[in-house]
Amino acid sequence: MKILNRIYLTLALVFSVLGIVQCFRWHECSGTITIGYLFNFLPTGIFLIAYALGRSVRREVVHAIVIPLCLLGVGFWGFFTVIIEEFLRETTEVTNVRKYETILSDYWISHGAGNLVGHFPRPIPSDAEDVHFSFLPAFLQGGAHVQLRYRAAPAVISELYEQFSGEKTMSFTGGDINDHMNLKEGMPTTFFYTSGSKNHRFPGDYEIMIFDPVLLEADRQPGFYWNHGRSHGVAISKMRNEIVYWAESW
């Protein structure tokens, strides 16, 4: 029976290490630390309790009860850990620039939306400065978005402006998707997810260009652009020498 007690302690140590690893993974997804992280140490607590009970007088009876409970507890922990991790992955905004190319390939292209991100640079230009990235996958009724913003030399921005001006179907000055959609013959665009602040409206020096077909008002059906729609384009500020690539799918 002493062997079982040693096994309980060893498993408590192993699962404490796994709990720490899980906390780091959850923190990478959510960027926050909450009391809920203690759930990662549930197996550790279970095996420590099993060890304490295993030192009682009637050890055979205790082990006969404790072992099934340990297996049940670990199974419960594993099941809900997978669910929580998947939820965090699907609802947490990704801002790590190092994941940019992987997300474009693994999510947008693999989901058949490669045409929405075809105008995005791959890789990020070596001369890009102050790079910001935002990605959120679709979850339940929520839509997905991806956005890349960076600053470059005035000549580079001017060249990109000329290039995309020839591809746009419509453009807007400043604002966000709500402003643009509510205009007469307006179109859905995006929010300024990479603004670096809680204000997700583009300042007035940005021209938001869309590359999507524009229907005349007479040809539009109610809710046409809001039900399972897509939009993509760029926003450029010559004053800031910045460009924002964006794509939305909902």
Description:
The protein is of the alpha+beta class and 250 residues long. It is 41% helix and 19% strand. It contains 6 helices and 6 strands; from the N terminus they run H-H-H-H-E-E-H-E-H-E-E-E. It has helices at 2-30, 42-54, 59-91, 100-109, 154-165, 177-181, and strands spanning 129-136, 144-151, 170-175, 202-210, 230-237, 242-249. The chain has a 6-stranded antiparallel β-sheet with strand order 1-2-6-5-4-3. Helix 1 runs antiparallel to helix 2, helix 1 (2-30) packs parallel to helix 3 (59-91) and helix 2 (42-54) packs antiparallel against helix 3. The termini are far apart.
How far apart lie the N and C ends?
Answer: 58 Å
Overall strand count: 6
Strand content: 15-25%
Question: Averaged pLDDT, please?
Answer: 82
Could you give the order of strands across the largest sheet? 1-2-6-5-4-3
Q: Biggest sheet, in brief?
A: 6 strands, antiparallel
Low-confidence segments: none
Shape type: elongated
Helix-strand makeup class: alpha+beta
Radius of gyration over alpha carbons?
A: 26 Å
Helix content: 40-55%
So how many helices?
A: 6
Which H/E pattern describes the elements? HHHHEEHEHEEE
